[in-house]
Amino acid sequence: MAKKGREAEKETYTISELAREFEISTRSIRYYEELGLLSPNRTSGNQRIFTKKDKARLKLIIRGKRLGFSLNEIKEMIEMYDIAGETEQIKLTLKYGEKKLKEIEEKIRELEMLREDLLTIRDILLKRLKELEKSEN
Questions:
Q1: What residues contact 39, with CB distance under 8 A and at least 6 apart?
Q2: Does residue 115 or residue 136 have the better pLDDT?
Q3: Nearby residues of 69 by Cβ (< 8 Å), 6 or more positions away
Q4: How many domains does the structure of the chain reveal?
Q5: Which of 20, 37, 59, 120 is the residue whose CA sits 20 to 30 A from 72?
Q6: CA gap 107, 63 in Å, rounded
Q7: What is the pLDDT of residues 13-29, one digit of tens each?
Q8: CATH value at residue 12
């Protein structure tokens, strides 16, 4: 428990620490940096040093990916806070969220139709199999 308290007090993080904490590769973190989603400071030895803000951004990136947002959408949502403030960021996030919900609802409808088709085909095949087995006896 004491370790968790010390971790919460940290001001900076290495790429390895963040990768371990979020269970992602360091390559993924470097890729997010290349895309401009993260902008860590550098030591004199050119080692990346991530701040609490970078850590929070990484958490948002991972959450956004899990929810199905593209990295471009995630970048826009994150940058909106810096450009126009929290109100506009929330509006943009809601807009993308509504779009994602519509996509999910459409996929659910398609999957339900596919399920019905498969159930119908299964019933037809089971009926035909019984007919064949009956005629063989």
A1: 33, 54
A2: 115
A3: 77, 96, 100
A4: 1
A5: 20
A6: 21
A7: 999 999 999 999 999 99
A8: 1.10.1660.10
